[in-house]
Structure to design on (1529 residues):
């Protein structure tokens, strides 16, 4: 998110004709405007205040996109909040502003129960649970005992509630610490310490260096005489560089302690835009307007400033920090969506069972209608009272209805409610392993993998498309100055390979820039010669580099007391690189305040007055600074910006050859993958300067439309500039990117790169990252009209077909490498394609290409491209990016990954997962994604089976009880079945089971295909599972039934047999499918069986239950154990046979690799034992 | 996820400068568990393993099946249905009317012992089509009341047989009310009595801890409708063994209940005369009544199912083992052979 100039210049210029390339095809102004009007709908509105930053927060939609239209708006009194400086009483008269105490805790003691329950019951599953529990409370329907029916729900609610309570307790605790921190507040003209929670809006607060700001404050004055304060916003948006904030000169002069400070601030209502702020302040009858650079926000830290005074404008929950404190977006995993279809089948199955039971019962009632009165086991008539009436008989219609409801209660676990809870636990476990994975820890940024969304773990195993940003994602976003073209001369030979360390001595101290830069010796010599024409050019060029930026130099002490390092802090890495390189060539920026800068030029300190600064905005894509030169006579404007916008303001009449030469240099730089900037300069005449100054002043104090006015002023001054030269900055590829892309590609994942860079840059990065290879056929689409776009797309499709035929003709057997196509399309063309009928064609073409590169795309276009795939295919998409311009794409894709890199944390905040390096994508998808998917899909199928088998055993018994829903299995066992008897092993297996080792998965990325092809969870597997379930339930039920038929066995005893038989069967079934046995797995599976025995014994030892001591009697007979053995073997033999035959004769890739792992290659196993191997090696 | 509060002082200046000493590295601690590298066993279904498993199963199951089948065959069982025979031929058109009337219901049947039967010989009555597991029946009992006299009024679950007037019935509920009341007396052909021992036919646990020693029947079968046997009000429930047996409700609609034990051996060809009181009304729901005399084996009563099932499963496993051996010999697949991998079979086809 760093917006400075350069990134934005490069990444957001899609609607502007690419000057360097299309110089011949000048577009008329009208067509340009029409383009703009067309795209304006899709374009992100950048807030174009002084600090222009694109802002897109999670879900606020339009509210946060504060376009420049907003700056025209005078703040209405209705929409404003009025703050009387240093008069909190008056400010808070109406009690409408929040105090500064924060409460991130959701609940209090009183509200915990209702609120927490309310939130928990948002889940449909719980409501189903509740309805059934309530039904069971009706006397006519009481199937289970009251306790038994509520227990599972209560258990789940309790566990969740305890978890929530614990989390909330921690939040309360941190709130308490936070609220009780101390700050210096002006009370009665004296600064006193006050707790944070007692701070009110309107109070004047003094904050010292390195302290955290207690609330959002408008700066009044700072220790710096010019009113500058630096803040670090790490806690807010993760950016670690310093940001400059200014106090207004009008307030800077006042001392709050002696002379009373007073005034009225009128500012907008609290909102969550951390980069926007609008207000005016009335001080001493003057109205001053305030912008985002005048406010410092809660959570930031004051740096490099001794103290600062501010007036609280937003406090507590109304601060921008708190308003932005929303959780991660919630997505639903694909597997879960699929699962819902099967759940639907299961509910049909459930209803069928219930209908069968109630129809049979109805028939039985009709056939025995005459006998019901006297039948010993029915006794319809109740003779006990004086009046003879029916005993619990409501007519056969109602009886059937009750039977239906009762059967729903009895068969309720057919819908595996526990599955949802197990899935959540399993995901927590999986997230634990992903976070703890050493191989996804980024050393350079010291960041672990982060799981921000907890419910899409398994989607990582099914990705088919990866959409990647380039800058900061594929590349490091650590800029290095590489080449310069100065005055038409190219200095990119790179002869000087040594790193030159430039240093100056000031007051006996040696100052040295912190970073060393490689320099070109030729250029170094030139920069020292002052008098030649070229020397002058070079001089101006480097002055421009050193001056035309927003970098703040900071001096850092070193161990050696005589040496100080200069660190350049700024918001854009490009600017940092430029300033460091200028320093290396002897143009060292030493000091910057709001009024002047000091540059040490070849050992000579020169002071430039900064007369004005036109900051970067995404429209102009350039910035300029107006400097008063040290001779105090000349005033120069230095401009720096993207080539597209710079060439249109360059005075070409002066030196056409030089312009041409620079253009060709630029072209060659960008084809090397460098980021280019063009630098220009103009000397201002006195009249011109005065004219500018007056309009600048009136514009910067304007109340309405200030940004637009400033832009107008800037446009006027940035004109007819002399071209000084151009710079080429290298953005290095991240470590392991080519290998990672290769792995992903062989895993069957299509990698698309979406970048804001120029086409040449994008293509060269494509080559260096092995995305593009020389064998590929490139289809390039860059058009300026819809018709030409259509034509290019059609041509592309034709070419596609031709290549296919060709490769078919050449045998096609190994056509994998030969006929690969790469599509390169730019943002301008996308304007005509996306959201039109051409989209379909683009999709068709793109899906045939193995590589797609989109360059010059705007943030929303990125999302549009993701949507292109997402809406047309079932395939899973993943977007990965690091900057604010990737946020929309990250949110659009099924899985969004944020790189926590150089740019801010916007992408991370919007992402589902966050990590430090692009290459971690390989272990994430190929290893963890694969495991997660395999584990989760098996767990879902197993849970279906586990519950259905139990329900069916209950159902078969119902057929032998006059269809009256008696259960031989005790209530408690039915309830504990999915809570204790069988739950732990599934969760353990779901978290720990591993089909293949990490090494194998990385070695054979093709194995990832099993997830893409949905091999582990699909309709066929579901139905096979259901058939298996039917057989197993028949075996489990009928073996005891037939073995005990006509014997004197009682219900409780045979019920115990059924319970234990089903539990053993289900656990052995699981054991058969476990692929990796850890001691934990053993403990869970065999432990569950033992736990079941213990529970059954305990239940049967309760003498108030009818089944008292039944287990001990039946377990004393040999028949019981024979039945158990017979059931387990008989039920599982078919499964084993089918499994063996399939594994043996239609082996899946996974199966073969498992065998290879075990028998084939012993070396593999050795490597796996070795924890040191780090970067994935693919062959 | 909730710790993202910007104000919480976590994080600190995470500046990315490479020179700063990294004191608090967040690198996850290495452990075999967190890296998912715990030692583990990874079983694979190899032909050898599967075939030997099936052989093992068949070698275990077939002998068990044979032994069980022999055990079941050794059991001698006399089953005699009498629900029709014990109705005077004149009343056979209105069996319900007969059974509800006050006529003498004594009936004499003769049984011939087909094989030697060694004591103890268990005497059961078998009821068919009597749903002792019917929901409303099963629940119509009060376990509290059975245990101690204080709980005599705990009849909430017993309706419609909970109270007569205002006094509670002990034992209450449909189960107790419908207590079976046919009686059997055995005499041998030579006129000697064959005694039936009716002690110890119920579970010891029930007698000692479920049915109270000081709970006496009261108010039992005093209502308008008599369901079955009456109880001697001077004998505590813990000694009313017929009731205790009856109250262990049967799991299935066809069931036997122990009536008593004959503790003498019977010889093949012995003729036993049974004098029975055909009191119990099974006619209203077409139920059948049978008298059963049976010896037992280690496996219980006469039931071939277990033996047959074990033989079938064992045989099937043996057969499968043979089939697998053949398949393995005819068309073996080398384990872990990479030529079977999908991307090796059809290149580019993934």
């Amino acid at each position: 998110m760093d917006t400075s100039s350069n990134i934005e210049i490069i990444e957001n210029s899609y609607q502007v004709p690419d000057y360097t390339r299309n110089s011949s095809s000048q577009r008329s102004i009208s067509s340009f405007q029409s383009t703009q009007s067309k795209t304006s709908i899709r374009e992100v509105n950048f807030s174009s205040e002084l600090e222009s930053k694109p802002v897109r927060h999670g879900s606020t939609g339009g509210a946060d996109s504060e376009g420049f239209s907003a700056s025209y708006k005078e703040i209405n009194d209705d929409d404003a909040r009025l703050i009387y400086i240093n008069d909190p009483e008056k400010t808070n008269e109406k009690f409408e502003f929040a105090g500064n105490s924060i409460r991130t805790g959701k609940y209090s003691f009183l509200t915990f129960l209702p609120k927490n329950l309310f939130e928990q019951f948002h889940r449909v599953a719980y409501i189903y649970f509740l309805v059934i529990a309530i039904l069971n409370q009706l006397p006519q329907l009481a199937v289970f005992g009251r306790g038994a029916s509520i227990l599972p729900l209560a258990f789940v609610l309790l566990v969740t509630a305890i978890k929530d309570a614990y989390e909330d307790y921690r939040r309360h605790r941190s709130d308490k610490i936070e609220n009780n921190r101390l700050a210096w507040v002006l009370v009665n003209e004296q600064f006193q310490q006050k707790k944070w929670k007692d701070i009110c809006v309107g109070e004047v607060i003094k904050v010292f260096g390195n302290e955290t700001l207690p609330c959002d404050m408008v700066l009044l004055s700072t220790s710096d005489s010019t009113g500058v304060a630096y803040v670090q916003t790490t806690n807010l948006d993760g950016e670690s560089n310093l940001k400059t904030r200014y106090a207004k000169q009008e307030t800077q002069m006042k001392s709050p302690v002696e002379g009373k400070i007073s005034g009225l601030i009128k500012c907008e209502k609290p909102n969550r835009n951390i980069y926007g702020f609008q207000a005016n302040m009335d001080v001493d009858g003057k109205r001053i307007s305030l912008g985002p650079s005048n406010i410092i926000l809660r959570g930031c830290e004051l740096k490099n400033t001794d103290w600062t005074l501010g007036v609280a404008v937003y406090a507590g929950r109304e601060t921008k920090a708190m308003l932005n404190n929303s959780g991660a977006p919630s997505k639903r995993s694909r597997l879960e969506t699929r699962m819902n279809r099967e759940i639907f089948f299961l509910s049909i199955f459930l209803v069928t069972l219930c209908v069968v039971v109630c129809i049979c019962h109805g028939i039985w009632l009709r056939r025995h209608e005459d006998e019901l009165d006297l039948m010993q086991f029915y006794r319809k008539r109740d003779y006990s009272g004086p009046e003879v009436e029916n005993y619990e008989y409501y007519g056969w219609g109602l009886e059937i209805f009750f039977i239906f409801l009762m059967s729903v209660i009895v068969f309720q676990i057919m819908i595996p409610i526990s599955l949802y809870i197990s899935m959540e636990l399993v995901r927590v476990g999986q997230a634990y392993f992903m976070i703890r994975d050493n191989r996804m820890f980024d050393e350079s940024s010291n960041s672990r993998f982060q799981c921000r969304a907890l419910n899409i773990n398994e989607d990582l195993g099914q990705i088919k498309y990866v959409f990647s940003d380039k800058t900061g994602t594929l590349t490091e976003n650590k800029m290095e100055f590489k080449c310069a073209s100065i005055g038409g001369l190219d200095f990119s030979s790179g002869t000087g390979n040594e790193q030159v360390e430039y240093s100056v001595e000031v007051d006996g101290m040696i100052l040295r820039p912190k970073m060393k830069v490689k320099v070109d010796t030729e250029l170094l010599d030139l920069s020292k010669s002052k008098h030649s024409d070229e020397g002058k050019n070079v001089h101006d060029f480097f002055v421009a580099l050193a001056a035309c930026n927003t970098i703040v130099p900071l001096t850092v002490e070193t161990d050696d007391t005589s040496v100080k390092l200069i660190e350049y802090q700024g918001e854009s890495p490009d600017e940092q690189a430029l300033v460091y390189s200028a320093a290396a060539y002897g143009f060292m920026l030493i000091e910057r305040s709001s009024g002047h800068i000091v540059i040490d030029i070849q050992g000579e300190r020169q002071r430039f007055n900064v007369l004005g600064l036109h900051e970067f905005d995404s429209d102009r894509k350039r910035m300029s600074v107006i400097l008063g030169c040290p001779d105090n006579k000349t005033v120069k404007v230095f401009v720096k910006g993207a080539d597209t916008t710079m060439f249109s303001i360059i005075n070409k009449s002066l030196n056409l050859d030089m312009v041409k030469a620079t253009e060709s240099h630029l072209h060659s730089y960008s084809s090397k993958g460098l980021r280019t900037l063009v630098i220009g300069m103009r000397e201002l005449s006195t009249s011109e300067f005065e004219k500018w100054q007056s309009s600048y002043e009136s514009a910067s104090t304007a109340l309405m439309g200030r940004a637009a006015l400033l832009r107008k002023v800037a446009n006027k001054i940035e004109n007819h500039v002399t071209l000084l030269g151009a710079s080429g900055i290298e953005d290095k590829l991240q470590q392991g990117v080519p290998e990672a892309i290769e792995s992903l590609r062989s895993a069957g994942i299509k990698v698309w790169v979406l970048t804001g860079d120029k086409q040449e840059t994008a293509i060269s990065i494509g080559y260096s990252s092995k995305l593009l290879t020389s064998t590929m056929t490139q289809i390039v689409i860059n058009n300026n009209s819809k018709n030409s776009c259509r034509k290019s797309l059609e041509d592309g499709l034709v070419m596609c077909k031709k290549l296919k035929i060709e490769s078919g003709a050449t045998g096609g057997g190994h056509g994998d490498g030969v006929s690969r196509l790469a599509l390169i399309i730019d943002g301008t063309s996308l304007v005509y394609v996306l959201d039109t009928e051409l989209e379909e064609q683009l999709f068709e073409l793109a899906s045939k290409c193995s590589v797609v590169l989109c360059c010059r795309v705007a943030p929303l276009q990125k999302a549009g491209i993701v949507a292109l795939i997402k809406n047309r295919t079932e395939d899973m998409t993943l977007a990965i990016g690091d900057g604010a311009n990737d946020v929309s794409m990250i949110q659009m894709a099924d899985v969004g990954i944020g790189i926590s890199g150089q740019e801010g944390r916007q992408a991370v905040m919007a992402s589902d997962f966050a990590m430090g390096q692009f290459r971690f994508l390989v272990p994430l998808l190929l290893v963890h994604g694969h495991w997660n998917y395999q584990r989760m899909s098996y767990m879902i199928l197993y849970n279906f089976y586990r519950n259905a088998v139990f329900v069916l055993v209950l159902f078969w018994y119902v057929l032998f009880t006059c269809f009256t829903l008696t259960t031989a299995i005790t209530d408690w066992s039915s309830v504990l079945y999915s809570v204790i008897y069988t739950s732990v092993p599934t969760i353990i297996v779901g978290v720990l089971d591993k089909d293949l080792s990490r090494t194998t998965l990385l070695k054979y990325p093709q194995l990832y295909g099993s997830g893409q092809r949905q091999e582990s969870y699909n309709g066929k597997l579901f139905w096979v599972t259901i058939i298996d379930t039917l057989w197993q339930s028949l075996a489990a039920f009928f073996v005891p039934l037939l073995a005990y038929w006509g014997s004197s066995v009682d219900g409780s005893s045979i019920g115990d047999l059924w319970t234990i038989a089903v539990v053993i069967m289900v656990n052995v079934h699981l054991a058969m499918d476990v692929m990796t046995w850890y001691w934990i797995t053993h403990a869970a599976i065999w432990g569950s069986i033992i736990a079941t025995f213990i529970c059954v014994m305990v239940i049967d030892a309760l003498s108030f239950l009818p089944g008292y001591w039944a287990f001990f009697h039946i377990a004393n007979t040999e028949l019981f154990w024979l039945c158990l053995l017979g059931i387990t073997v008989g039920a599982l033999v078919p499964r084993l046979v089918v499994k063996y035959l399939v594994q043996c004769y239609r082996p899946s890739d996974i199966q073969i690799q498992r065998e290879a792992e075990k028998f084939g290659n012993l070396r593999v196993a050795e490597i796996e034992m070795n924890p040191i191997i780090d970067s994935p090696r693919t062959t | 996820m909730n710790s993202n509060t910007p104000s919480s002082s976590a994080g600190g200046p995470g500046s990315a400068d490479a020179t700063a000493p990294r004191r608090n590295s967040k690198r996850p601690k290495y452990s075999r568990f967190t890296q998912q590298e715990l030692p583990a066993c990874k079983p694979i279904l190899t032909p050898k393993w599967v075939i030997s498993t099936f052989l093992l199963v068949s070698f275990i199951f077939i002998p068990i099946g044979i032994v069980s089948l022999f055990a079941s065959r050794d059991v001698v069982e006399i089953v005699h249905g009498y629900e029709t025979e014990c109705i005077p031929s004149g009343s056979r058109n209105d069996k319900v009317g007969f059974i509800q009337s006050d006529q003498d219901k004594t009936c004499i049947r003769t049984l011939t012992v087909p094989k030697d039967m060694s004591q103890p010989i268990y005497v059961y009555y078998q009821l068919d089509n009597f749903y002792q597991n019917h929901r409303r029946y099963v629940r119509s009992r009060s376990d509290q009341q059975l245990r101690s006299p204080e709980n005599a009024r705990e009849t909430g679950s017993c309706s419609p047989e909970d109270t007569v007037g205002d006094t509670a019935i002990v034992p209450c509920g449909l189960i107790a009310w419908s207590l079976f009341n046919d009686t059997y007396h055995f005499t041998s052909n030579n006129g000697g009595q064959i005694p039936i021992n009716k002690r110890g036919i119920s579970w010891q646990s029930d007698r000692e801890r479920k049915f109270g020693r000081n709970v006496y029947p009261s108010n039992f079968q005093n209502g308008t409708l008599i369901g079955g046997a009456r109880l001697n009000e001077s004998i505590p429930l813990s000694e009313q063994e017929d009731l205790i047996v009856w109250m262990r409700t049967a799991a299935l609609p066809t069931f036997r209940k122990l009536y008593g034990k004959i503790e003498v051996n019977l010889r093949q060809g012995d003729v036993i005369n049974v004098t029975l009181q055909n009191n119990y009304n099974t006619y209203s729901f077409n139920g059948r009544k049978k008298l059963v005399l049976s010896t037992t084996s280690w496996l219980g009563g006469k039931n071939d199912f277990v033996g047959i099932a074990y033989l079938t499963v064992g045989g099937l496993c043996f057969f499968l083992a043979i089939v697998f051996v053949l398949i393995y010999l005819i068309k073996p697949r080398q384990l872990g052979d990479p030529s079977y991998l999908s991307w090796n079979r059809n290149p580019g086809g993934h």
Notes: Confidence is low (pLDDT under 50) at residues 1-23 of chain B. Chain B touches chain A through 120 residues (CB under 8 Å). The radius of gyration of chain B is 34 Å.
